[in-house]
Write a structure and sequence with these properties.
This is Phage protein. This protein has 63 residues and is mainly α. It has three helices and no strands. Helix 1 runs antiparallel to helix 3. The chain is elongated, with a radius of gyration of 15 Å.
């Protein structure tokens, strides 16, 4: 199991990759929603959910 910081670092790296893609002028909504970026978006959502769950458990440690 990854630590919260490792997951956040992966998310930041993914954001850098997407920003570079977006700024390259090659952005395609079709690729983003149904093409090669679909898997990317799904992985990012998984990471987001994991980090949110970890943070929620930390914030509610008394439960």
């Amino acid at each position: 199991m990854s630590t919260k910081q490792e997951l956040i670092n992966e998310m930041i790296e993914m954001q850098r990759k997407f920003t570079a893609y977006e700024q390259s002028g090659k952005f395609s909504a079709e690729e983003y929603y149904v093409g090669e970026w679909k898997t990317y978006r799904e992985r990012y959502q998984e990471l987001t959910n994991e980090v949110r769950e970890m943070a929620s458990k930390e914030a509610n440690f008394w439960k």
